[in-house]
Amino acid sequence: MHSAPTLPGTVLLTGAGRRRNIGSAIARGLAADGFDLALSYCAEYDQRVNGEASDVELLADELREAGTRVELVPGDLADPEVPGQLVTSAREALGPIGALVMCHCESVDSSILDTTVESFDRHYAVNVRATWLLLKAFAEQVEPGTDTPGGAAIALTSDHTVHNLPYGATKGALDRLVLAGTAELADRGIRTNVINPGPIDTGWMTDEIRAAGAAATPGGQLGEPETVADLVRFLLSEQGGWIRGQLLFSNGGFHTPAV
């Protein structure tokens, strides 16, 4: 049982373009906990990388039918103007944002020898620069030293790098950036954490990858999107409020293979 939110009641959640992904599972969990939701997504990314059209409108309808206020705030986070616009749009539609949960990413497989400069730069723009600009705009809602609750920021990361080089490298930068927020933004009442969920199948795994991942996890099974959502819900609850500035491995004991 999760307590009612003590943060301002709106969450800006990025990367929620598909109903079967981690972001959507988090959205459902936070809606059940009583939060209103501003859902950010990039339809172009879902089509280009996942080969599927975004169906976030169906997710929004599902949540609204259950009584949650939902605002869709689309945008390509490779554009440096978009992060601030998302925060502004969410605030105007739903009020002060109590939490920022960042599930967005650029993730295109490539290696040291075949990664292009264009691809690397886009990974950096989405995974690192946009994360910084989102966190900055979120923090700027709150004046230092005021009694207004600042809120919480959570980002998802990964330790994958081999043949997924620009993704893994930029996720490493994301970790440092977000964790710095717990100290740098303490005067605004903001706490930050990063979650490494290990391998979660949201439609990208082959049978071979799924079997290898399960074999590398004690208990012989992989986590689900809802597994990640459970930890996010706890971190945003009153009970989870003392966990700050942490990189949390919530991966069932998964061990990253050496090769």
From TrEMBL:
Alphabetic keyword roster: Oxidoreductase
InterPro entries: NAD(P)-bd_dom_sf, SDR_fam
Name of the protein in its database record: Short-chain dehydrogenase
Family of the protein in this entry: Belongs to the short-chain dehydrogenases/reductases (SDR) family.
Highest taxon above the source species: Bacteria
GO molecular function: oxidoreductase activity, acting on CH-OH group of donors
Coiled coil start-end: none
Source species: Brachybacterium muris UCD-AY4
